[in-house]
Amino acid sequence: MVLQSSDAQGTASFTGATNWSNAAVPSAANDYVDNGFILRTPADGSAHTFAGGSLTVSNAPTAPPLTHSSAVLAYKGFGSTITIGTAPTNGLFLDNAYLASFQCLQAWTFGGFITLKAGGGLIEPQTGTMTVSAKIGGPGPLAVFPTGSTSLSEGGTVVLTGSNSYSGGTAVNGTYILQAGNSNALGSATGSLSLVNGSAPSLDLNGNSISIGNLSGVSGARIFNSATNAAPVDGRRWRCRWRLVSGVHQRWQRTAGFEQNWRRYAHLRRNRFL
Length: 274
What we know:
The chain is mainly beta. Helix content is 3%, strand content 36%. The strands form 3 sheets. Strands 1, 3, 4, 6, 7, 9, 11, 12, 14, 16, 18 and 21 form a 12-stranded parallel beta sheet that branches. A 10-stranded mixed beta sheet has the order 2-5-8-10-13-15-17-20-22-24, with no helix packed on it.
């Protein structure tokens, strides 16, 4: 079944029949596709589970890096949990599309399964905290990035708590914070991490050690550890790019001598330092 137009304010095709091509509420017998529209969840404080077989949100995928997309699964609730899927096959598929909060200052959870297709997925928490407990897999990239109605200065937080395996890399933009809920939060250990586009894109290690394939960032980017209230490692306002030497994975380790220990542990060579 295909979403034929965007949900208007006060409507929610996530649980209703409003804009689906068969004019019926989602059913496990069907798979559902939103190709370029806004699909809203109910505007209430209740937990909701998508009843369809699967949900694909896409917008004519383009090659990464990801950019603004009009294809959005929009959260309109109040501090609740939204779930899609009991397995990857009946979960949420993102292909150059958003999972976004359309409510300011809300703390909410997205559970189930997410597969990032070639075009990848964008997550937008607005000024609140979005916890993604869903397991994220697939070949595409993941980006914390504003929708067209918000800006790079929103400053919300995305918390990844699933045991993730996606391999397309991770990007954090603007003043958003991405918090790791475990050592596999950023997916494949060979994936890249980019802290880009804005004044203070940030990664909070939250007490975890994380392996990545490559790191790049802008001046003002932060990597810190809220679990110990450690000082941000960007205390000297640096722009950085590291790369692997002899295929050894970079490993982020929370210690007082973070930068020096990391370089020694992973045998890294710094390309630029400001």
